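Dear U.,

For the methods section draft, I wanted the exact inputs and outputs in one place so we can describe them consistently. I've listed the two proteins in the order they'll appear in the manuscript figures. Please don't edit the token lines directly; just add comments below if something needs changing.

First protein:
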Amino acid sequence: MEKIKSFSQTFGLHPLTALGLFAIDWMLFGEEVATAGAGWLISLPVGVMLGIIAILIQKHAYKDKTAPAIAKGLLVGLLTAIPAPLSSFGILPLAAFGMIRALTSKPRQLSQGGQI
């Protein structure tokens, strides 16, 4: 079980990161279809912003170290900037690993003073 947790920590994405990538990628794809491909000018800055947000989520909520959080954020930003919705499906295995980690982590217990 410990190997699965370690693997999920290394290769997993926080579910919020994965959901954000999936939703924003599909919204941008609709915009790119409507503008006949000229919408990539919008996709690039949105990809950069989502990458920065993903780095922060991975670092603070998923408890990744800085280097893996940056690598995962760059991957998310790059996949968002690609003008096709299929790239978001490539992130689904990473989201599954993140969900495994979230479900197998121990819940925090209250201390005697009632504080976490």
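Second protein (the one for the lower panel):
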Amino acid sequence: MSFFPSLLIQVGLLFAPFLFMLVVNARVRHRGVRFCFALLLALAAGWAAYEASTKLGWKPRLKGGHVAGLSPLSLFGAFGIGHFIALLFFVFAKDRSGRGGLPPREFEAATTGRGKTWRVGHVGRDQIFYEEARLGGWERIEISGEMLMGRAHHVIYFPSPGEWRERYPEWARDRREEIIARVCSACPAPDYEYSGI
């Protein structure tokens, strides 16, 4: 078999299962189902390596362009077992972001016998909102934030006491500590960081 078709088969065998698994991980949250997909993809990669070796005469190329002299059964085992072990990292990856990669719109609410009295959630990608049930409706303030890439996936920027009084409406103006405490209880560390408190 010539170099380019051989290289194309090898690249497909190496990377196609991982691309499929990325799609599965984006759509499936249940680990048992992801485990089954990982097993099926690993078996499919092993079978494809076996078929390419027996029917097309394909042999994998090593670093430097050398051809590996493995039997078709050895190729099935190497690709099947190797891919299964690697795909298990996708199966057991931690999912901290919630379904669809975004935090839920509303993730904490205090309740009384009459129902919710306050709630906290995200506005778009970065901002946080705090809402209170007041006079038969919901009053809202928005607090700046920023998405992060580390252990904490979000930082919340609370305004200084002076800025708080200038920026927010009368019902929230003198309740800075109370509202900050509620937001922090709804957005706990270490998943969130706080600035300005």
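Candidate sentences for the figure legend, describing the second protein: DSSP finds six helices and six strands in the chain. Confidence is low (pLDDT under 50) at residues 95-106.

Thanks,
Y.
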